[in-house]
Amino acid sequence: MNRRVVAGFIIVGVLLAFFPELDDVLGYPRFLLTFLYFVFFWIAQATSWNMLTGYSGYFSFGQGAFYGVGVYTTAALVTKTDLPFLLTLPIAGLLAAILGLLVGFVVFRLRQLRGELFALLTLAVDFVVASIIRNADFIDGGQGISIRRVPYPDFLGTFPEMMFRVGLVIALLTVFAAYLIYNSRLGRGLFAINDDEAVAEGLGVPTFRYKMIAFGLSAFFAGLAAGLHSIQISYVTVEGVFSLTIPLFVILMSLLGGRRHWLGPAIGAIIIYTLNDAFSDTNLQFLNEVVIGGLLIAIILFVPEGIFDRLRSRLVPALILAAGVTVVQAVLIGGRITGQAAVVMLAVIALLVIPARLYDRSIGRYFTRQQGPAEALNPVAESTTGE
Amino acid sequence: MQLIVQSMVSGLLTGGLYAIIAIGVTLNWGMMKVINLAHFSLCFLAAYLTYQFTISTGQDPFLSLLFTIPLFFVIGLALQWFFERFEIEHFMSLLVTFGMFVIFESIMREIWTADLRNLPVDTVPYRAESLWIGSIALRIPQLGVFIAAVIVSIATWLFLNRTYAGKALRAISQDRGVAGAFGVNHRRLALLLGGIMGMYAAIAGVFIAVMFVLRPDGATEFIGVVFAVVILGGLGNTAGAFGAGVIVGVVQSLTAATIGPGFSPLVTFSVLILVLLFRPQGLFVRSST
Questions:
Q1: Chain B residues whose beta carbon lies within 8 Å of the beta carbon of residue A115
Q2: A314-327: b or e for each residue (b if 16 or more CB lie within 10 Å)?
Q3: Rounded Cα–Cα distance for residues B210 and A346 (Å)
C-alpha cells in the first residue's frame, strides 16, 4: 500500500464526512447533498463494474442484474420484515455476490465464452432476473414496491444527510477495494488475463479463481450501493430498475475515466453524472441523450484508453483552463453550482480530446519541461539476444 | 388443445418478424464483425416513417416501402461507411452502436413525442381480419410478415450463394486478406451489404408499424429476443436465423398461453443461456470440432 494514497483516502473521507455540518459556514444550497449522494452512488456502481471488466477485459452487462437484486433485496426486506434498514445493505450485497458467483461458476468454465458472447450472456441474465422478480409475488408480482419512511439511527441526521453519509462510506469502501485489488496479485493476474488468457494460465495464474473473486466482489459492491439506492428511488418497479440505464452508464463512465486504473471509473462517474444532471435540469432532455450517446462514440473512437492518463500528462494546462472557466462563469454568468461544474468539465474534456500530436505541437510546448531524447532500449543487448 | 394449436400458429407467424430483423443483425455480425444495435433503431425509424406517411397521405402503409426502401438503403450504406472508416469491429461496435441507439431513440422521441402512436383503423382495414383454416385463425398482418420473412430469407440465401457479390462477401467473412489477394473489393461489397441491411430494416419497419403500437423506446424490447434468435441460429446463418425466429416465436406464445405472459422472457432467455453454454455455434450448425 502506498502511504500517500491511503492518506488521500483519509483526507477526502474526513473532509466530506463533515460536509453536511458545514452548510451554515459554506452556505451551499441544500440540493447539493442529494446531488453528491448521486455522485457517490455512480462512483460505487462504475468502480464495482470495473473490478472485473476494466482489469480482466470481460465486458459484463450483468451490472443491471446485480443492481436489480440489490435494489429489490433492500426494498423487499424493508417493507416486508422488521429488519433495520442498514442491516439489509450487506444482505443486498451478498445476494448480488451469490448471483455473480453462480453466473461466473457456469460461464468462466467455458473457454469460448469471451468477448461479445460473454457480454450477451450477461445481458440475458439481466432479462432473466427481471422476469423472475416480476413474476415472484413475494417480491414484486408486477405491482412494484413503494417504500415509505424508513427508520434509521438518529445520529445520521436528516434524510439527505443520512443518504450522503452512508453513500459516502459505500463509495469510499468500493474505491478503496478497487485500489487494493489493483495493487495485489489478484489485480496483476486479472491484467494478465486481459492481455492473453492462455499465456496467463500457462504461467500459473489461477484464472478461474481470479475471475470468480473479481466477479463476486464486483457484484457485492454493486448490490451494496444498489440497496441504499432503493431508499432514494422509494418507488421500485421492474421497468425502472432493469432498464438499460445502469449498464450503459457504468460502461460509459469507466470508458471515459479509463478502465485500466482504479481511479478512472470514479472520475468518469463524477463527470458523466454532473453533465447528465446539468442537462436534465434545463429541459434539455433531448440534448442530454444525444450528448451522452455522442460522447460514448467519441470516446471510443478518439480516446479509447480513457481521459485519466491524459489528465495526468496535461494536468497543469487542465487546471489553468478549469480555473479560468470557473472565474469567468462566477463573474459573468452565475447559475447553479452544478451547472457551472458541468461547463468546466466540458472545457477540460475538450482539452483532453485533442489528439496527442496536435497537442504536443501547440499547447504542450509551453508546459512540458525540457526532456532529452527518449531513452531507447540498449540496442546491443537486443541484437545479441536475437541471435 | 384448440388454444395451444392457435398460439403455436400465431407464434410461428410472429416469428417471421423476429427473423427479418435477425437476418439483418446476423449478417452484419457474421460477415462484417459489426454487432449493430443501430439496426433496431433503423427498424423503428422506418416504422415511424411508415406511420407518418400513412397519416399524411391516407394511403396504405405498404406503399411507403416505395420510398423507405431506397432511403434506408442509403442510410445503411452510410452507417457501413462509418464503420469501415473508423475500423469499428467486435466489442467496440457494440458500444459505438449503443451510442447511436441512444441518439436515434432521443431523435424519435423529439419528433414523435413519447405518446403511443397507432395507425388509424381505416388506413389498414385488414389489420384485424383473419384467414380461417378450420377453427385456427391466421391473422393477416402476421401471415404477411411470415411470407415476407420467407421471401427475405430465400432472397438472401440466393444472393449469398448464387451471385458473385454474395460469394465474395462470404469469402471476405472467412479471410479478408486472402479474399483481397484474389481481387475481391472488400470496401465496395461491405457498403452493398450495409445497404441491403438497411432495406431489411425498412421492410421490418412497415410490419412493426402495422402490428404494434409505436413507442420511441419500443426497440429495446426487440433487442433481447432478436439476439436470442441470432445466437440460436448461428452467426451469419440466414436459414438459421429464420428457423430460430420461428422457434422463438412459438416458444414465446406457447409460454404465454400455458404459464402466463410474464414468463415468456424468462423461458426465451433461459433457452438462450443454455444454448450459449452448450452450443455457442448455434442450433443449426454441425459441430466443427
A1: 90-91
A2: beebbeebbeebee
A3: 43
Q: Does the beta-carbon distance from B273 to A297 stay under 8 Å?
A: no
pLDDT on residue B289: 40
The secondary structure of residue A329, as a DSSP letter, is I
CB contact under 8 A, A120 and B106: no
How far is Cα B237 from Cα B166, in angstroms, rounded to an integer? 13
Q: For residues A260 and A249, give the distance between their C-alpha atoms in angstroms, rounded to a whole number.
A: 17
CB A58 within 8 A of CB A118: yes
pLDDT value of residue B50: 94
What pLDDT is recorded for position B98? 84
- φ, ψ for residue A243 (rounded to 5)? -70, 170
Q: Please indicate whether, in this complex, the C-beta atoms of B265 and A110 are within 8 angstroms of each other.
A: no
- CA distances (Å), origin A115, targets A112, A209, A310, A344: 9, 19, 27, 36
Name the residue in chain A with its Cα closest to that of B230.
A120
Distance from C-alpha of A206 to C-alpha of A200, rounded to nearest angstrom: 8
Nearest CA in chain A to B267: A128
Name every chain B residue with its beta carbon within 8 A of the beta carbon of A293.
98-103, 106
Q: What is the pLDDT of residue A318?
A: 87
Taking the Cβ of residue A239 and every Cβ of chain B, the question of whether any pair is shorter than 8 Å is answered with no
Q: Which amino acid is at A36?
A: L
- How many helices (H) and strands (E) chain B has is answered by 11, 2
Interatomic CA distance for residues B71 and B53, integer angstroms: 13
Among A107, A130, A294, the residue with its CB nearest the CB of B103 is A294
Q: What is the rounded CA–CA span in Å between residue B243 and residue B24? A: 15
pLDDT digits (tens, 9 = 90+) for B164-223: 999 998 888 888 888 888 888 888 899 999 999 999 999 999 999 999 999 888 888 888
Q: Do A135 and B266 touch (CB under 8 A)?
A: yes
Task: With CB atoms and an 8 Å threshold, state whether B269 touches A116.
Answer: no
Asked if A127's CB is within 8 angstroms of B227's CB, the reply is no
Q: Return the SS3 of A236.
A: strand
CA–CA separation, B87 vs B92, rounded Å? 9
- Separation between Cα atoms, residue A298 and residue A321, nearest integer Å: 21
Condensed to tens digits (0 to 9), the pLDDT of residues B217-274 reads 888 888 888 988 998 888 888 999 999 999 999 999 999 888 887 788 888 888 888 8
- Using DSSP's 3-state secondary structure scheme, residue A104 falls into helix
Residue among A342, A344, A285 at smallest CA distance from A39: A342
What's the rounded mean pLDDT across residues A237-260? 85
Give contacts of A107 with chain B, Cβ < 8 Å. Answer: 277
> What number of residues does chain A have?
387
B91/A142 touch (CB, cutoff 8 Å), yes or no: no
| Stated pTM of the model | 0.84
Confidence of residue B41 (pLDDT cuts 50, 70, 90): very high
